[in-house]
C-alpha cells in the first residue's frame, strides 16, 4: 500500500484532526526555539519538509522571521513547489534525498533542525543512525524538533535516550493523552562534529511499507482481492470455534491489567465486522465520507462485553462476517475503489479494498490474542 502524500497533506486542512493538532504544537515548538536563539541570522534545515507548513506557519508574524534562512529538503517536486511558495525566498527548497547529508551542506551547522514526519517512516535502526548524525548538523545550542507516533511498540523513549547520549537536553516532550503522536524538542549541549557529505542517514521507507507486515501476528497487507473473502469467512469460523472451546471462567478472565478477556476480544471483532460493513456501504453512497470513530475502548464498558453470552457472540460474529462478505461480493471494480477518510493509524483516505484487507488483519490479529492461529 503506497501512501499518496498529496492526499495525506489534506488532513492538515481538517480542523481538529490529529495532523492539525500535531502541526499546531510543532509550530509552537519552532516559535519557542526561535525565541531562544541568540540575536543574528538563524540557520534552519528541515528533513522531508513536505509543504513546509510547520516552518511557514511558525514564521508568520514572528519577530525573528527575517533572521531565518536555510534549506528544506523534499523529494516530491510538487510538494517542494508548495513549500517554496509557503516559506518564501529566504529559505531554499531542494528537491532531493533528505536521507543523505550532502543535501544539508550549505546550511550546516544549523540553529534549528526539523525532523518532523520522518521517524514514523524509517526503520528503527535508521532512526538511531539519524540521531547519531545530528551533532554534525547542529551548531552549539541548536534546537531539534522531531515527531514520532507512540503506537506500540512505542519507540519515543528510545529516541529520547539516543538524543541524550548525543548531548541533547530535552526542552519539551508533548504527548497528549487523546492522541497517538509525540513531539520532542531538544537543545544541543554537546560538542559539534565536523560536517561530512555523502553520509547515508536514513532511507525513507514510508509508513505503509513499515506497516506491511504486522510485528505481532505476522499479517501482510499484500493480499489480493480474490483472497479477502475466503480469509474473512475462514478466520471468522476459526475465531468462533476457538471462543466456544474456552471454558466459562477463562473466557471472561483478563490475563493482565489492561488486556481484554477472550470474550471481550470476540465482542470487539464482531463489532468491527459490523462497523466495517457500515463504512463500506457509506462509501458507496457518499463521496469520501469521514468515518465516525468506532470508540473501541468505550464499547467494552458501555456494552458490557464481558457480561455477554459467548455462544451468542460467536453466532453474531459469524453473521457479521457473512454480511460483510456478502456486501463485498456485490461490488464491482468501482465499488472496491471507493474511498473514505479512515482514522487509523492516521486520518487518511482509504479504499474499500484497504478497509476489507484491514478487517482480515483484525480477525487474524485478535485470533492471536485469544490463542489460536490457522
Task: Give a topology summary.
Blueprint: H1 5-9, H2 18-36, E1 42-46, H3 53-59, E2 68-74, H4 77-87, E3 91-95, E4 110-115, H5 124-133, E5 138-149, H6 156-165, E6 168-174, E7 181-188, H7 207-210, H8 225-245, H9 262-285, H10 296-302, H11 310-329, H12 333-337, E8 339-342, E9 348-351, H13 352-369
Parallel strand pairs: 1-2, 1-4, 2-3, 4-5
Antiparallel strand pairs: 5-7, 6-7, 8-9
Spell out the key features of this protein.
single chain; 374 residues; alpha/beta; two-stranded antiparallel sheet; 13 helices; 9 strands; elongated
Brief account:
The protein is α/β, with parallel strands linked by helices.
Structure description:
α8 (225-245) packs antiparallel against α11 (310-329) and α9 (262-285) runs parallel beside α11. The two termini are 25 Å apart. By secondary structure, this protein is an alpha/beta fold. The strands form two sheets. A seven-stranded mixed β-sheet has the order 3-2-1-4-5-7-6, sandwiched between helices. A two-stranded antiparallel sheet has the order 8-9. It has 13 helices and nine strands. The model has no long low-confidence stretch (mean pLDDT 89). 39% of the residues are buried. A hairpin with a 6-residue loop joins β6 and β7.
Amino acid at each position: 500500500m503506497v501512501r499518496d502524500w498529496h492526499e495525506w497533506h489534506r488532513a492538515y486542512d481538517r480542523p481538529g484532526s490529529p495532523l492539525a493538532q500535531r502541526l499546531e504544537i510543532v509550530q509552537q515548538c519552532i516559535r519557542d526555539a526561535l525565541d531562544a536563539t541568540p540575536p543574528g541570522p538563524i540557520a534552519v534545515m528541515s528533513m522531508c519538509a513536505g509543504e513546509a507548513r510547520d516552518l511557514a506557519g511558525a514564521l508568520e508574524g514572528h519577530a525573528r522571521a527575517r533572521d531565518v534562512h536555510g534549506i528544506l529538503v523534499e523529494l516530491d517536486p510538487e510538494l517542494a513547489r508548495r513549500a517554496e511558495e509557503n516559506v518564501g525566498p529566504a529559505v531554499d527548497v531542494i528537491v532531493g534525498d533528505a536521507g543523505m547529508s550532502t543535501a544539508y551542506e550549505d546550511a550546516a551547522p544549523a540553529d534549528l533542525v526539523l525532523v518532523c514526519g520522518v521517524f514514523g517512516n524509517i526503520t528503527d535502526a535508521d532512526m538511531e543512525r539519524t540521531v547519531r548524525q545530528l551533532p554534525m548538523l547542529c551548531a552549539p545550542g541548536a534546537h531539534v524538533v522531531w515527531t514520532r507516533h507512540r503506537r506500540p511498540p512505542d519507540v519515543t523513549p528510545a529516541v529520547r535516550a539516543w538524543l541524550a547520549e548525543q548531548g541533547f537536553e530535552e526542552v519539551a516532550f508533548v504527548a497528549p493523552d487523546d492522541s497517538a503522536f509525540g513531539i520532542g524538542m531538544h537543545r544541543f549541549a554537546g560538542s559539534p562534529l565536523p560536517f561530512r557529505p555523502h553520509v547515508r542517514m536514513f532511507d525513507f521507507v514510508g509508513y505503509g511499507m513499515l506497516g506491511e507486515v504486522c510485528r505481532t501476528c505476522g499479517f501482510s497487507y499484500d493480499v489480493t482481492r480474490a483472497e479477502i473473502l475466503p480469509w474473512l469467512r475462514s478466520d471468522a469460523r476459526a475465531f468462533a470455534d476457538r471462543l466456544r472451546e474456552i471454558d466459562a471462567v477463562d473466557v471472561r478472565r483478563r490475563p493482565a491489567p489492561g488486556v481484554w478477556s477472550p470474550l471481550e476480544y470476540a465482542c470487539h471483532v464482531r463489532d468491527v465486522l459490523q462497523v466495517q460493513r457500515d463504512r463500506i456501504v457509506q462509501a458507496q453512497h457518499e463521496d469520501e465520507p469521514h468515518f465516525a470513530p468506532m470508540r473501541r475502548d468505550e464499547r467494552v464498558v458501555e456494552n458490557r462485553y464481558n457480561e455477554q453470552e459467548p455462544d451468542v457472540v460467536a453466532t453474531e460474529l459469524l453473521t457479521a462476517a457473512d454480511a460483510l462478505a456478502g456486501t463485498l461480493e456485490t461490488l464491482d471494480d468501482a465499488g472496491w475503489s471507493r474511498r473514505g477518510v479512515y482514522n487509523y493509524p492516521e486520518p487518511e483516505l482509504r479504499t474499500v479494498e484497504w478497509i476489507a484487507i484491514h478487517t482480515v488483519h483484525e480477525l487474524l490479529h485478535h485470533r492471536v490474542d485469544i490463542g489460536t492461529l490457522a
